[in-house]
Amino acid sequence: MAYSSARLEKYLDYVDWFLNVDRGGIEEAPNGDQYLTFKVTTTNARQDHLESKILTHLNNAVDPDAYGVYTGPTGGQHTSTYTLVLDESNHDIDLISGRYGGYRNDVAGISNRDAAHATQPGYPTPYSIDGLSVKIYDPHATVLGQSIGDWTADWWTWTLQAPLATNPLLDPSGAYANVNNTAPVFFIGGDPGRPEGEEGLHRSFNVPAGKPVLVPLANLASIQFDFDQDHNVDQQKAYIENELATWNNSVSGLFVEIDGVPVRHPENYFVKTDFFSPGEAQPGTLLEAAVTGAVPPAEPGDDLFPTGAAGYYLMIEGLTPGQHILHFGGSAIVPPETTAVTRLDVTDTIFVM
Predict the structure, then answer these.
(1) How do the domains of the chain map onto residue ranges?
(2) What span, in angstroms and rounded, lies between the C-alpha atoms of 319 and 204?
(3) Residue of 178, 141, 128, 118 whose CA lies nearest to 314
(4) Would you tell me which of 36, 211, 311, 351 could form a disulfide with 8, CB atoms 3.0–4.6 Å apart?
(5) For 268, phi and psi rounded to 5 degrees?
(6) How many CA atoms lie within 13 A of 313 on its CB side?
(7) How many CB atoms are closer than 10 A to CB 202?
(8) Phi/psi of residue 157, each to 5°?
(9) Is the pLDDT of residue 126 over 50?
(10) What is the per-residue pLDDT for 111?
(11) pTM given for the model
């Protein structure tokens, strides 16, 4: 492909032929990249579909190794921003979603959003993301037919319904990491937290080869014990939303390393569930202990809908057989107290086999 700025205008002329495009001029970044930012505005679902087809076609033409571009929601008026880049590092043209600030020419010139998908099977170049040879899914992705948000709701159901005496969340060594851990995705236990300054958790356990791994950096579930069954569900949901938002505003210092390599911007991996029920509290489970210890106490057979949860999770695929070390955590408040900060710090030595 010829490397000239005229190519940027040519490709944009192609898009402008079909869509309502607001185009800027060619600019130059400090590293020598030339780029052209443009906006596409649609007013109905048919135009959204046309935008998706044209931008996907253009992306395949100029940047065939990257995952693709995000073209926004369908229906109604919507404006999406894109940037065409002449990548000085490899003399190629790249199309990214968003503005040039999200561009990563250290990963073959793809955007931050697309970087998580660059090792997806079917794409010819095995990119290394953040120096890692694994795939980290975008938090909005679908994995094995289910959204990551739904997988996190399953994670909470698994944790809450595990026996209190052998619960993976409370496990100090990893001895209970495989308790009822039979989903198509392997759930990594989280951290109940501790005061600042105390040593974190160190766990060791086996992980089945070939399964994606869900890692909770920091998370919270809100179960409305304080309302009786006749309480207005909308009020329950509003309370949950407020509690999760308050918690999320307190989260800081997120970090995650895979085999000693930091994953950049872990704050980008925020996931929130829809309202769900973790099921009836089974005897001897963490959930039973929670409901009977609530004030006022709930009954083990009570319907615990609505429950809501939010957090920061990595869905990782491609861990090779053998030993790997996951180190992750952060800090957050402990609801309903807004002043008590808990530190989350987990080092998991896992054996994929």
Answers:
(1) 6-126, 142-352
(2) 16
(3) 141
(4) 36
(5) -80, -10
(6) 36
(7) 14
(8) -60, -45
(9) no
(10) 52
(11) 0.65
Which residues, listed in sequence order, are joined to residue 207 by a DSSP beta bridge?
352
For 45, phi then psi, to 5°, come to -65, -35
Least confident of 25-29, 104-108, 124-128: 124-128
What is the 3-state secondary structure of 53-112?
A: HHHHHHHHHHCCCCCCCCCCCCCCCEEEEEEEEEECCCCEEEEEECCHHHEEHHHCCEEH
- pLDDT tens digit sequence for 324-344: 999 999 999 877 666 678 899
Share of the chain residues as helix, strand and coil, in percent rounded to the nearest 5: 25, 30, 45
Q: Which of 178, 172, 181 is nearest to 154 (CA)?
A: 181
Q: What is the pLDDT of residue 107?
A: 43
Phi, psi (deg, nearest 5) at residue 272 = -130, 140
Answer whether 119's CB lies under 8 Å from 318's CB.
yes
**Three-class SS state of 18:** helix
Q: Which two tokens stand for residue 258?
A: 């895979």
Look over the chain and give the mean of its residue pLDDT values, rounded to a whole number. 80
Cα dihedral: 333, 334, 336, 338 (round 10): -30
Strand 307-317 vs strand 135-136: parallel, antiparallel, or unpaired? antiparallel
Q: Is the pLDDT of residue 59 over 60?
A: yes
